[in-house]
Amino acid sequence: MDLQRTLSHGAGDVGLAVDHATRLTNRFQARRQPVEAR
Fold first, then answer.
1. What is the superkingdom listed in this entry's lineage (predicted)?
2. Contact 27, 20 (CB under 8 A)
3. d(CA 17, CA 38)
4. Per-residue tens of pLDDT for the chain, all 38 residues
5. 19 with 10: CB under 8 angstroms?
């Protein structure tokens, strides 16, 4: 098991997840109406 490779891979996945969550949060806060934000 290559720990270094696993960590860098995980960091990339986390970065993508955080970026996606940030976009969703920004969209939600901009509208304040999740039902219309579909």
1. Bacteria
2. no
3. 19
4. 688 887 777 888 888 999 999 999 998 887 776 565 55
5. no
